């Protein structure tokens, strides 16, 4: 398959999101598209896939002019796309999601689920994918949901795969497994488009790379004709700023104390877990997705009631309190899922930015919100965090995924609470924004705030954490100080129960 895009233009009202971009994708190759949040990467691929209209330009498939009227037409032509924010039905099973709209039907119109199960099991076995086909998607971690999206494309036998930030929420082991699948696709002669912020992955996987900035194509060519450093400069339009040297922390008293916390019952129970997060430190939690990290975060933030144990914030027992009460007690929360938990997408940027501040002086007058104050506050966050959006009055849902994430991070860090729970805080943001967010987290730590960092990025855990706790099978399998941490030791604890440090993790 050979796909050529020529002089593509996509506009949203007065905004030109893609400005005369030309790209080519060939069978048996991996083509990476990189750029800052809002650079137009996802938009140009959405245009190819028939999700958004092109105002100018042309597309040819194997030399023949095409223009998809909808994604269904693109799918029938052999294209498949996995979006950064998953397109799954949460109340349906893995099997039902994968075959949705492509169900094998019998003579009477009944779906042949047995036939679909056998076909899907064969596809999964061919690529070494292990997942419970009968599990409800609502019960899956983000990493497992990514696998379901990949399975949909495998089931459809697409000839061209477009993957938008496919490893954003995957652990190193899951990323390696995905890349093994992609390599087998490449060897089978399929074309792969990889939209990503991770330059190491670009250098490891891509045969060609295209860099976009502000809707324009600034570089496109073979991976051998450039370098990681040059790609980074092309992305930001200049040199990246060096981060200051990371100073050792000076931990104080415990801000978050967890004792013998148990979430769920039976074989799937998470815990018992005990840990402390102290003033002036970052405690990182590492682990392969699905080993209890999500359940732990939900229990700590009030999204789920624990079955046993104690949770204290600033010496206050909060185990029985809801999310709002815990935030009032001194907690800020950067959730893993910005779409469902972090933002109200139909709401304005100013409304989303002001969540949690409506009881503060200046933000409300009697029973009414002060719109001018909300707009000023949102404008300040937009400028400080370099959020690309039309302005405070724009709807949150109009932003790119990375800019949504920056808005959530900006809102939560600006609250200045004693405790910050950060769950994959740099998911889907560009390299410049990653450095900025990391710097802000370290500033908060140095100012005496306690930060609990849960991340699927092992490099992020190692770069920011003063202490590291590793989870496996719903329990703490190991814990170590920053000075004693290395990838091999952490990786060993991620794959098996090591020292049972559920009590030791609490030791200061």
TrEMBL record:
This is ABC transporter ATP-binding protein. Belongs to the ABC transporter superfamily. It holds the Pfam family ABC_tran. Gene3D superfamilies: P-loop containing nucleotide triphosphate hydrolases. Residues 3-239, 253-498 form the ABC transporter domain. The keyword ATP-binding applies. It comes from Roseitalea porphyridii. GO terms for molecular function: ATP binding; ATP hydrolysis activity. PROSITE patterns: ABC_TRANSPORTER_1, ABC_TRANSPORTER_2. Keywords: ATP-binding, Nucleotide-binding, Repeat, Sugar transport, Transport.
């Amino acid at each position: 398959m050979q796909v050529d895009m020529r002089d593509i233009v996509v506009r949203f009202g007065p905004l030109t999101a893609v400005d005369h971009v030309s790209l080519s994708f060939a069978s048996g190759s991996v083509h990476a598209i990189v750029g800052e949040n809002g650079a137009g990467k996802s938009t140009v691929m959405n245009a190819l896939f028939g999700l958004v209209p092109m105002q100018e330009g042309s597309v040819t498939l194997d030399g023949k002019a095409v223009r998809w009227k909808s994604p269904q037409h693109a799918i029938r032509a052999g294209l498949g796309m996995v979006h950064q924010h998953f397109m799954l039905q949460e109340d349906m099973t893995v099997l039902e999601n994968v075959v949705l709209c492509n169900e094998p039907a019998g003579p009477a119109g009944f779906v042949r689920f047995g036939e679909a199960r056998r076909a899907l099991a064969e596809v999964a076995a061919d690529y070494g994918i292990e997942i419970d086909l009968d599990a409800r998607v609502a019960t899956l971690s983000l990493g497992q949901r990514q696998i379901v999206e990949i399975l949909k494309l495998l089931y459809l036998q697409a000839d061209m795969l477009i993957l938008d930030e496919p490893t954003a929420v995957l652990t190193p082991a899951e990323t390696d497994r995905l890349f093994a699948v992609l390599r087998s696709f490449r060897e089978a002669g399929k074309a792969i488009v990889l939209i990503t912020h991770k330059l190491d992955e670009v250098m490891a996987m891509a045969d060609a790379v295209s860099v976009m900035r502000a809707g324009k194509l600034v570089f496109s060519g073979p991976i051998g004709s450039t370098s990681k450093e040059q790609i980074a400069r092309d992305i930001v339009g200049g040199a990246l700023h060096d981060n200051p040297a990371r100073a050792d922390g000076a931990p104080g008293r415990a801000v978050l104390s967890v004792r013998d916390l148990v979430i769920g019952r039976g074989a799937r129970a998470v815990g018992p877990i005990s840990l402390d997060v102290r003033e002036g430190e970052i405690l990182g939690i590492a682990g392969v997705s699905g080993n209890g990290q999500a359940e732990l975060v939900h229990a700590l933030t009030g999204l789920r009631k624990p079955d046993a144990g104690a949770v204290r914030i600033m010496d206050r027992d909060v185990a029985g309190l809801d999310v709002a009460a815990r935030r009032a007690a001194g907690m800020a929360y950067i959730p893993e899922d910005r779409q469902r938990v972090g933002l109200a997408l139909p709401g304005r940027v100013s409304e989303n930015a002001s969540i949690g501040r409506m009881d503060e002086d200046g933000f409300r007058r009697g029973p009414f919100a002060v719109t001018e104050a909300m707009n000023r506050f949102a404008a300040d966050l937009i400028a400080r965090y370099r959020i690309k959006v039309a302005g405070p009055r724009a709807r949150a849902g109009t932003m790119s995924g990375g800019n949504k994430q920056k808005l959530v991070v900006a809102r939560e860090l600006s609250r200045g609470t004693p405790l910050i729970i950060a769950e994959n805080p740099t998911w889907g943001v560009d390299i410049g924004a990653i450095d900025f967010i990391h710097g802000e987290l370290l500033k908060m730590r140095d100012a005496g705030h306690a930060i609990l960092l849960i991340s699927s990025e092992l490099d992020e855990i190692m770069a920011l954490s003063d202490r590291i706790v590793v989870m496996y099978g719903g329990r703490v399998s190991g814990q170590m100080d920053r000075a004693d941490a290395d990838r091999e030791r952490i990786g060993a604890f991620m794959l098996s129960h090591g020292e049972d440090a559920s009590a030791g993790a609490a030791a200061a």
